[in-house]
User: What shape does this take?
Amino acid sequence: MWMYTQDSGHTHGLSLVGFAVEAADGAIGHVDRQQDQPGMQHLVVDTGVWKFGRSVLVPAGAVIAIDLRTQTVKVAPSREEIKAAPRFTTDSETGDTEYLSAVGDYYLSLHSAPLR
Assistant: This one.
């Protein structure tokens, strides 16, 4: 869950900050920050495109494709599934094992997403 899959297009050292993020059913926002520590890889996505936009934490395992030409990250969960994920409020949560466990459990529970 917390690592990019080999077929995602991610390469070590690749910065995704500023890339657009899209689900199969539409735009989600853009990558605001990323964590590349092995075993804890994730994106913090600014969802400013939504009314009352907020940031969400998306585990790297949810990334299904990275398009360098269009600077787009495609994720498996739908927009609604990402909106329903545990709320991300502060960067300190990225070090909180309980929060990360809840996020990981949530994304693993999604039946429509081929997360690994």
About this structure: The two ends are 6 Å apart (CA to CA).
